[in-house]
Fold this sequence. Notes:
The structure holds two protein chains of two kinds. Chain A has helices spanning 10-53, 63-94, 97-102, 108-136, 149-167, 176-186, 201-209, 211-224, 230-257. Chain A has one domain (4-257). Chain A contains nine helices and no strands. Chain A is mainly alpha-helical. In chain B, the strands form three sheets. Chain B has a six-stranded mixed β-sheet with strand order 6-7-8-3-9-10, sandwiched between helices. The longest helix of chain B is centred in the middle third of the chain and has 18 residues, at 168-185. The termini of chain B are far apart.
Amino acid sequence: MTLSILKIDLIDAKAVWQRNFLVYRRLWKTELIAPIIEPIFTFFAFGFGVGSLVAAEVQGMSYLSFVGAGVLAFTVLMRTIFEMTYSAYFRMVYQSTYDAILATPINAESLAAGEILWAVSKGIIDCLFILPLVVIFGSATSIFTPLAVLPLTLGCIVLGSCSLGLTGRIFDIGKFNVFFAFFFSTIFLCGAWFPIELLPGWLQIIAYTLPTTAVIDLTRACLNENFASRHIYETIYLLAASLFFTEWALRSIRERMVI
Amino acid sequence: MIKAIEAIALVKNFGVQRAVNNISFHVESGETFAILGENGAGKSTTMRMIAGRSPLTSGILKVDGLSIGTKGRHIRLILGVVPQENNLDPDLNVRENLLVYSKYFRIQKFEAEKRCDALLDFIKLTDKKDEKVEHLSGGMKRRLIIARALLHRPKILLLDEPTTGLDPNVRQEIWEKLEELRREENLTIVISTHYMDEAEKLARRLIVMSRGKIVIEGFPRQIIEERVKKFALEIREVELSIKPQNIKNVLFQKRGLTHLYFAETPDELTALMNYYGTRQMLLRPSNLEDVFLQMTDFDSSSIG
């Protein structure tokens, strides 16, 4: 059995990516408002609001520093997930954009890869705009701060491809509500707003299995320069999850579109 | 000479349901070929298999001599596909729709721009090139989809129900464009339709499908001549109390309130015109629709 990932043609995937980028360029002003406004208010709420109630240092840093990685990762991952659920579903079902593309030499795998690459790019574009905010709000103190792009990219690949895989399998857009309920619930478990060690043991186990936990922990390490050996395992975990979910997404789109 | 399309014992199952049931046909290079049939006959599935969008359950399908199973990418490079549904990109304007599509075929930017402008001119949409797609009329959208399918200069154009839902003027316009393409570009055109007049007007040869099988195959005129008499008299809105006439060598068929008679000469039918008096009547050559309806019409009865 051939891996679907091996069927990707990068030039074809780039053509799909360019189509999305062209649409984005036209709408960039509105596209950028949300990812800038949201983190500012999240900083106000969690950094200053909740933060003022937290006198103690969290993992050796102020609460505002601790929470920065969560704000950044949450906004970026959220963006990618939206792109690969609602936006992708619109392109696939309502606009028949996938149908039009598959009538060209581009195969289902390259189409899906182009879509995932685009969703990751969109997350990273947002990341580049939010990172200065994280610095301004005092959450990033390390010179390694720009490296936060790397774990966030991996996180976007994992969650973007997982979302696209799901999009390929649902026939009712309302079902995304269940997925989002799950995602929003997990975001409170994965160390974005408080350390996982504060959770009961069994919840900690669940938290550590979530890719989001690894993404936030690695992002925080870059922002605050507190690298540890566990970060190597987390990186390997995210790389493996990226491959697994990308393969799943490609198969899911092929099964949906080529029947 | 290599056939444009060659299908041998084609089968397509969806679960336990058989959508295409062991069909064989071929399309000659440079001809216009129609696949006819009612909704659910298997036309669209056959078209999707040719376009590489639906893997075969069994059988052999070759396009331009290449096997669909192994040479899908090469085949899609020589196929222009006009789908049944409008799938123009609503996020892009008219010209961008063509330019973005040209990227999928890896056409160089300069060449793509040249072809886009030439095609916009061909479909008379040059003055709409910056318009949003949603602002175009149904006919304009259809023309743009056809232009998009021609960007990479395909050898074969596949059109799935190309004029469904369009008004008569636009249908004529689309037919003229297709005829022009076949004549001047020597394109092979495969068209699926449930409009008999469309098939009769455009197709050199055709197949009629029903429940996944081919039930008729041949040249339109030949099919008509072999299966129905040459002339038809159509009398509309006939009251139920009026009994049909029984005339030697004249075939009768009833479709709703319409009475239809078929004969080899118009003279045999004119005699009937007095019988129906001032009712709305039409004396015409028989057409494919007559063939098709005779095959499927359970209400028909011959009294001739």
